[in-house]
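Appendix B, record 7
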Amino acid sequence: MGDVRYDQKNLLEVDWSKIPAPSDDGAARHLVGMAIPPLGLLATDDTSVTLSELPGRTVVFAYPRTGEPGKISLVDDWDMIPGARGCTPQTCSFRDLFAELKAAGAKHVFGLSTQDNVYQTEMASRLHLPFRCCRTKS
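Structure tokens (predicted):
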């Protein structure tokens, strides 16, 4: 990422023109139509979710991590990692579109990240999410 640094002091004033957009390299193209393997996930309501066992259409959106209150950045140059910036707005977008997703036939909607269940439970409450967020059990 060279010598480029993006120092974001105010999380509410993002200059998106300076944030690199992620690009689709096609590496996941072979996954279309494949069944998801049985993988147990821990949800924010402390239940275990196995996506492959859920009936109907399931929407899962993945993100590395959402921002934490009082913390400006997670690592130096976080904003320069394509796709890293915007996880909290992405999560809020799924919240805002939840009724439309359900109306379009989604039986289940989940967020999926690497953050621990305690943090994700707080985040889900703070952002008023109408769906559960998950992480792997390990």
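Remarks on this record: Confidence is low (pLDDT under 50) at residues 1-6. The longest strand covers residues 106-112.
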